[in-house]
Amino acid sequence: MRVGLCSRYALLAGIAWSVTPAWAAAPQEQAATPVAQGDGTRLETIVVTARRTRENLQSTPVAVTAMSGELLDRLNIRDVVATAQFTPNLGISQQPASITAASVFIRGIGNASPSAVSEQGVGIYLDGVYIARSAGAVFDLVDLERIEVLRGPQGTLFGRNSVGGAVQLISRKPAGHAGFEGKAGYGSFDDWYARARFDTGYIAGTPIKASVSYMHRQRDGYFDNVLAPSNQDPGALNSEAVTAAVQGDFGDLTVNYGFDYNTRTGIPAFFQVVNATDDVRNYFGASPLFGGSSFQIGADGLRKGEQQPALDLNGNPTFAVKARVYGHALTLNYQLIPELAIKSITAYRSYRQDGANGLSGNGTLRGFTLSPILFVDGTVAPTGVQPVTPYDGYTTQRQHQFSQEVQLLGEAGEFKYVGGAFYFSEKSSEANYQQLTFVLPGGDAGVNLSPLQAFSGKARSYALFGQISYTPEGSGLELTGGVRYTRDKKWLTLAGDVQPNLDGQVSYRNLSWLASANYRLRQDLMGYVRVSSGFRAGGINPSASEINVFAPEKVVAYEAGLKGEWFDHMLRTNLSAFYVDYRDLQISQFLAGTGGATSAIVNAGRVAYRGVEAEITAIPVRGLTIDASLGYTSPKYKSYLYRDPATNELVNVASEARLSQAAKLNTHIGVQYDYSLPVGKLSLRTDYAYRSTVYWFTIDRLNLFNRDIRSRPDHNLRARISLADISAGAGKLDVGLWGDNLTNQRNIDFGIDFGSLGYGSASFKKKRTFGVDAKFTY
């Protein structure tokens, strides 16, 4: 893409942009949407909580992107995955064989493992509550006020495992007046949903108000599995979600209780074999000779074919994955004195998922097999022609967590401060019942294997933190410093095929810190510099057959930015550049083989990430809003130690290491035009997003199919036309027509190189879709 290349060269020359568009909603205030303020000629003020207190975005010395719930609603974004199209240097990929797990990366930093004990590199928070695992992080966004994406280490205020940044999901609070809001939509693949929200207003003259929201959504799959009905095709989903909130305003004390519940039954995306060794091609390709299905393999995404079911724990065939995510949160705010408030967040969350681990991408294959058991003389008995599979299985996951955080927020003269304590406790377990056929050299025979990986784990985390800002009166200068002390403890038991079970325990301590300075050059122009550190906890590898301990990652990030508004608030430009020194990088080396989908986690070395970001929002004429963003990240591996399996020697492969699971460049531009008609407000909006190539693994010599399964440059075009504020009795009606992936691009969404199993597989992007929706507000 020539525009992307030109932008890259400009960036490397030193043009650094980082903006938050005028999409964000101010907490308990009018939402800041991508339309003009007042008379339609000025941008709205955006309020965020990136430093735990409510601040104007333009005064916050942090690179933040905020998206309002109204924008998410207009674009029919129902989970966090699609938000990456609108945010610089944010990458989110739906994990295969799961309907609730995602890989989240910011500035190239994150974690791809969906394990129930795997620490994330980007912290995800729902109303201030830390969601510990990527498994369970994808749930229906029923009733959000906004999403905030904080880029860079958030080691002092957000702390645990937020080395890449943090994603904050903020729910809508109950309204002060009674009301109803309902919305329904229908689209391609029989994709429909219905959502309703009820607000009580203040109940019977009391200081208590409440709201409840419910959403049902379902769709057929977008890959035609000829072995299943359409509602069980890959990509199919049936989801129920409920959120409830109660708020009590008792003078100096405000009490908020929130509950969210989401149950999902779905079929993960079809995972197709993209390339394979000659032995694997010959072996599975002979399946029709033994009365089996044809071997499905190809670099282009299929839209129709066979996907065999997996067997559940009772031996019944199933295509589905079933998941449940729910949580409770109680937040207390007490204004002790005008200069000091105390905030408490008490939360419990639970997650479970059971379902088919369907990564075979084929129907019922058959082949000649040998017994996995050797005779004394070293020979193997043939077991004849049997059903065979590249890889299949059934997985169960359980996780629940409790957290308690206490914050002190206050100011004294020229000082503002935030301090507090944090406690976190969790238990988790996972069992992966795998079925695979290991193809022997020559491709004439295979061995059917059923490895079982299972583990259980516990974790505890304790932290003390504080941050203080000093603003000399009349100077326009603010100086900020902060520290956070964290202690982590972990216990892990390896079970399954690991007999006898192995127990491991680790403990870590860390001191993260922050120093920043920002200066208001004029009324609407602020520059800042900041240096911050963070860490991602070490642990014990759950996907190994021995106790594989790895150390924490440590990061120091340097950032400079410029935030400004111009031409009487008709243009907003926020700019930033960053350099990140990353040490003891944790690398998961996928080692699928006779033991199943195993891995080794190593602290491979040191990496320097550097890049720039940009977002611009402008209102050139009344009613027309343009918002654009750009993010560029480039890593340089200073050292990457890899153990060569042929020589068992450590080799520095820094010169060939890739940025995995994240794009170097992503851009977005959105254009919206609003025009008032006698019957309502007409809105036309289109969004174009570009993302450069994504590689799923770091070292090609270890993952031979890394290039075959890479996601090539992605172009996504979506559009929407709507008519809002139509009078409908005592309420208002909005109707809309939308389209997504209008270029009908067929690109890889996620890929896995199965190593010594001899093949690489991937899922492909859903084709062009259209839909209609209607919303009624009373």
Structural overview:
The chain is mainly β and 778 residues long. It has one domain: Maltoporin, Chain A (Beta Barrel). Helix content is 3%, strand content 58%. It has three helices and 47 strands. The strands form nine sheets. It has a 22-stranded antiparallel barrel. A hairpin with a 6-residue loop joins β28 (452-470) and β29 (477-496). The longest helix has 11 residues, at 2-12. It starts with a helix and ends with a strand.
Quick synopsis:
By secondary structure, the protein is mostly beta strands. It is 3% helix and 58% strand.
Keywords:
778 residues, disordered N terminus, 22-stranded antiparallel barrel, Maltoporin, Chain A, mainly beta, 58% strand, five-stranded mixed sheet
Shape: globular
Query: What does the largest sheet look like?
Result: 22 strands, antiparallel, barrel
List low-pLDDT spans: 1-38
- Taken together, the total number of domains comes to 1
Classified in CATH, the superfamily is TonB-dependent receptor, beta-barrel domain
Please, what is the average pLDDT?
Answer: 89
Which structural class should the secondary elements be placed in? mainly beta
Alpha carbon gyration radius: 26 Å
- CATH domain fold name: Maltoporin, Chain A
Count of individual beta strands? 47
Query: Which architecture per CATH?
Result: Beta Barrel
Strand content: over 45%
Distance between the termini: 47 Å
Number of helices: 3
Q: What is the highest CATH level, the class?
A: Mainly Beta
User: What is the helix content?
Assistant: under 10%
